[in-house]
């Protein structure tokens, strides 16, 4: 499976505020680019932290992009995936509407009643892992459902986990011209953080977009802190 991460960060590396309230970092050109990225994916994935904070829809908005997908016999908008170990996704979340298939990937820690509630709300529930969603198992389960290209939109905990599992092939970061600050505000990669060995990136492109900068990387492997 090809896995790529896209996110928008402030100039100080934050994805949102310390209150975890969504910040509009991207401008119109970048949001159009994100729409094109979504249109090129079989599924768009977020963590339940993003669902609880932003209630995203995660669909392709541009009608010509949707038409191009249906012309090649793909659904108009990619599948949506939420990593949700205990099944906290609200049953009225926008990702559970009928605009696209939605996979709620839970762990064995999710109660039977939460799994049923998500299924009743329209999700296909997938179980991967014991206490927390196990990413290798989740990715395998998605692959068996025909997902070959997976876009990760966030947030910081989930992006870190995908890097930690060595599952990311490409990263694009839009760096907006704003400072958000806050030691507890989410960053591009939160989690426990890397020590001693870090994912290595190869910078493939840099360009101005809106009033910010788009950085595009491929992931080349892992290396030690001092080379
Ligand atoms: N600027 C941007 O491009 C974006 C910003 N955001 C922001 O990020 C914030 C949400 O990010 P986070 O709080 O970090 O939450 P998150 O969206 O990364 O979700 C984390 C949660 O996912 C669940 N999870 C299940 N399995 C997991 C695994 N294997 N690894 C990691 N998490 C797993 C856990 O419940 C965990 O608490 C919001 O404030 C949102 O606005 C989110 C997406 C994009
Ligand atoms: N690319 C990007 N730029 C920003 O400035 C953002 N705040 C985000 N946030 C992400 O976009 C999701 C919203 O998706 P919908 O428009 O509802 O489909 C939100 O949940 C974050 O994942 N992204």
TrEMBL record:
Pathway: Cofactor biosynthesis; riboflavin biosynthesis. Residues 2-215 form the Bacterial bifunctional deaminase-reductase C-terminal domain. Pfam families: RibD_C (PF01872). Transmembrane segments: none annotated. SUPFAM superfamilies: Dihydrofolate reductase-like. Its EC number is 1.1.1.302. InterPro entries: DHFR-like_dom_sf, Rib_reduct_arc, RibD_C, RibDG_C, Riboflavin_Biosynth_HTPR. Signal peptide: none annotated. It is an enzyme of class 1 (oxidoreductase). Keywords: NADP, Oxidoreductase, Riboflavin biosynthesis. One of its GO terms (molecular function) is NADP binding. GO terms for biological process: riboflavin biosynthetic process. It catalyses: 2,5-diamino-6-(1-D-ribitylamino)pyrimidin-4(3H)-one 5'-phosphate + NAD(+) = 2,5-diamino-6-(1-D-ribosylamino)pyrimidin-4(3H)-one 5'-phosphate + NADH + H(+); 2,5-diamino-6-(1-D-ribitylamino)pyrimidin-4(3H)-one 5'-phosphate + NADP(+) = 2,5-diamino-6-(1-D-ribosylamino)pyrimidin-4(3H)-one 5'-phosphate + NADPH + H(+). Homodimer. PANTHER family: 2,5-DIAMINO-6-RIBOSYLAMINO-4(3H)-PYRIMIDINONE 5'-PHOSPHATE REDUCTASE, DIHYDROFOLATE REDUCTASE FAMILY PROTEIN (AFU_ORTHOLOGUE AFUA_8G06820). Belongs to the HTP reductase family. This is 2,5-diamino-6-(ribosylamino)-4(3H)-pyrimidinone 5'-phosphate reductase.
